[in-house]
Amino acid sequence: MPTWTDTDRQFMLEALELAFQGCGLVSPNPMVGAVLVKNGRVVGRGYHRRFGSAHAEIEAIRDAGKNARGSTLYVTMEPCCFEGKTPACTNAVINAGIKRVVAAMLDPNPRVNGKGVKCLRRQGIEVAVGLLKQQAQRLNEAYVTFMKEHRPFVILKVASTLDGMIATEEGDSQWLTGERARATGQLLRLMADAILVGVNTVLKDNPRLTCRLNAEKKLLRVILDSNLRLPVQSRLFQEPGPVLVFTATRQEERIKRLERIGAQVIRVRQERKGRLNWQDILNELYHRQITSLLIEGGATVVSSALEAGVVDKAYFFQAPKILGPGRLFSIGLKPRTLRTALTLKDVRHIELGDDILTEGYVYRFS
């Protein structure tokens, strides 16, 4: 195992911070940051800015110029070794005369996955892997899941009162939480490739389902609508970007009505109580190169996703309010014992003004 110094950690932390600047714009590629260091001084910085643009290593080498020769490259993921939309980064590292590479993690893409490291070592470049590995893997947890499990990483977002209500009995939910919580919700949209709601949410709230943090961000808007009740005048059709509707109906006229205004309609299997099959949904999204899916509601969709065991990570925004009878987000869950309850792991609690965010990974009891 390599021995890391505090200086090594400092430079890798900077590379991780650079990588996050590509958040929301690089998928299905990973977020990657790179720092070139020579004689204890940073001589080049770079990050992958958007899908199809130069990779982080290339940007850092360009930034360093002649100073790249004889330097150490700190990079958050192993350099790629194949030519895709951009040339192989291993070739650029070799040609720049970089003497040492420190990578936080291997690239789980089967086209790389250690081959980049071997390529560099064959050229006499010293390579060490594993510095701040956990942080790097968490930064790209969607990409890692997509590559290893061949499905999107599924994120659930719920805003509720202290008694678990996501809306009043009449369906009013604007706004349960304050501005800081809603701003954090927009950050989740920026981080995701697709956003999903049920048709009841569209009928009640008429949302646009867009990301307001970055005008470049084009989310795939996904609607679950078993019987195609989605109105053609919905505001989500007035915004640029694709809309994908999953349904079980075979009523061709309803399908054509939505297709005429630009929606894509996909039929999937229907299960008991009219719920659409989550495996079919995730398979379709995977084949569309969706690495991360954000589920926002409503209660039927939230509870069915939890019941189906497809949620990887959950964000629960809790407002200091008690509504009494209303729309309960867990209404569709089966009864459980304390031993078999759905549980969050690696939990963080964050104060957002008067609201509390509870964030964690969903532990699936087996």
UniProtKB/TrEMBL annotation:
Keywords: Hydrolase, Metal-binding, Multifunctional enzyme, NADP, Oxidoreductase, Riboflavin biosynthesis, Zinc. It holds the Pfam family RibD_C. Pathway: Cofactor biosynthesis; riboflavin biosynthesis; 5-amino-6-(D-ribitylamino)uracil from GTP: step 3/4; Cofactor biosynthesis; riboflavin biosynthesis; 5-amino-6-(D-ribitylamino)uracil from GTP: step 2/4. Substrate binds at residues 173, 189, 209, 212, 296. GO terms for molecular function: 5-amino-6-(5-phosphoribosylamino)uracil reductase activity; diaminohydroxyphosphoribosylaminopyrimidine deaminase activity; NADP binding; zinc ion binding. Signal peptide: none annotated. Residues 6-128 form the CMP/dCMP-type deaminase domain. Converts 2,5-diamino-6-(ribosylamino)-4(3h)-pyrimidinone 5'-phosphate into 5-amino-6-(ribosylamino)-2,4(1h,3h)-pyrimidinedione 5'-phosphate. This is Riboflavin biosynthesis protein RibD. It comes from candidate division WOR-3 bacterium. The gene is ribD.
